[in-house]
Specification:
The structure is a single chain. This protein is 20% helix and 31% strand. The chain has 560 residues and is α+β, with helices and mostly antiparallel strands. The protein folds into 3 domains: 86 residues, Urease, subunit C, domain 1 (Roll), CATH 2.30.40.10; 251 residues, Alpha-Beta Barrel (TIM Barrel); 118 residues, Lipocalin, CATH 2.40.128.120. Strands 1, 2, 3, 4, 5, 15, 16 and 17 form an 8-stranded mixed sheet that branches. An 8-stranded antiparallel barrel has the order 21-22-23-24-25-26-27-28. A 6-stranded mixed sheet has the order 8-10-11-12-13-14.
Length: 560
Amino acid sequence: MRLLALLVGIALPGFALAQDGTWALTNARIETVTRGVIERGTVVIRDGLIEAVGADVRPPADARIVDLAGKRVYPGLIDLTSTMGLASAPAAGGGGSGGSGTSAAQPGSATVRNVGLEPGRVIANELRPSASDIRAARDAGITTVLVAPSRGAFRGLSALVPLRDESAEQYVVKSPVALHMGFQGAQGSGFGGRYPATLLGVIAYERQSLYNARHHAAVQERYRAGARGAVRPSYDVDLDALVPVVRGAVPAFFAADRENEIRRAVRVGEEFDLKLTIVGATEGFRAIDALKRADGVVVSLDFPRSTEVTGWSYRATQRHALDDSAATDSAVRRTLESNAATLHSAGVRFALASGGLRPGEFLGNVRKAIAAGLPRDVALQAVTVRAAEIAGVGAQLGSIEAGKIANLVVAERDILGDSANVRMVFVDGIRHEVIPQAAPERRRGAGGGRGGEREEGGEMARVAGTWDITVTSPQGENRASMTVTQSGAALEGTMATEMGTVQVTDGRITGERVTFSIAVPISGQTTTIVFRGTVDGNRMTGTADLGAMGSATFTGERRP
């Protein structure tokens, strides 16, 4: 049997990867979010779902038991403002037809794709997330993201995606979630391009498109009723996508950060009776009355600088928001960071989202919002169950309850604290261990004895070179060769097997310990195998985590 097949337990080429078996997470502090905290309990996962959770739950006989004494289990975090997996410049020819006024293409150019003016753009068909982006978000505890473009008047129909290693399109949780809208014109380049190229033009364009969709819906209904002589409706992918939006069957997620944008978006929503969610709401504290009229609110934690906010002055006006004598940069920052707390105090229910920030910055800003007055439990709800409810999947995600998807995060401390130390993440019941960052390097000074690089835990192992690897599992023994280079505590390279060559990623060295991963492609899917070993001169020994198939041992001998 060949090595890659051996590692994932696959003997037949057409085998489809199943969910990651049965797990019992025992002795953990479980924050269910919706049903309180279980100080010492068990979560049972079977076939990708939570089968049971409670203080008195016994592990099933067939479960793999993970003792989490001293650790905490949380629902996986959800980010509702992601562009992960989207190309920066989508290819032409894949958008709307431009047939009924919903496209800005000129006559004779109906096949031209107008990026940012595409109600019929189905994001689930375009997803190509990179393995590094998935791992970075997952290692921070984010297990699900809502993907949509970040600019444009009509941005397309978003997809809710689990952060598992396999094909994103195959495992989409929900599509479409919503039609995403904003106040930018064609090509998503702001105002200055072709029509609609001004704010008034964008608003007029959106309103006309929604009126056209209403008319298109009426024509469809008459034709489907079978009335003799009824006009046959034209086929228009963009108008067809807008019909369920104007009927309230598909929500409209409207990006609006500033006060004026929030009020404009709410007026559009009310004019067309849209099921409206405001996304952004950076100046939400100035438009609380408008936000209360929306069906949902997603607050971005991508805090802008004071110079980026227009429409009012943080420094010289609105004394009820800031004291003029104290209108410093720090006061501006505190006002923005307290936005979520202000909305909560006013009775506005919302989710928190990254606004496009990197995972670490996102969670860092959640902590800032908590420090500015947002209750910690509300913040946790806002990145879990509230986000799931706004995305329309509250029955499937967002809390630790029997029957829900097994998206879980295991951390040593509070996941919203400064040192959560996420150790393990489950996505769709599949376990992903988080490889901790290596300790910082330090170089000895002139008086420190021998030169060379060392770490706090002792002298750093030298791993660079070509290694003959032998993997031993219950299915048998197989060999491969691995060639790696080392830069400080980082390791990268390739592993060659009979089935081909794969990249060695996430390589880290801490003293004599080494960890690295390989991504194994099987039948269009990808599984990550994590190796952990100890280096003693030219010999390496350790284990390989094979996910549902258990683990294997491995040895390595460095070639001279």
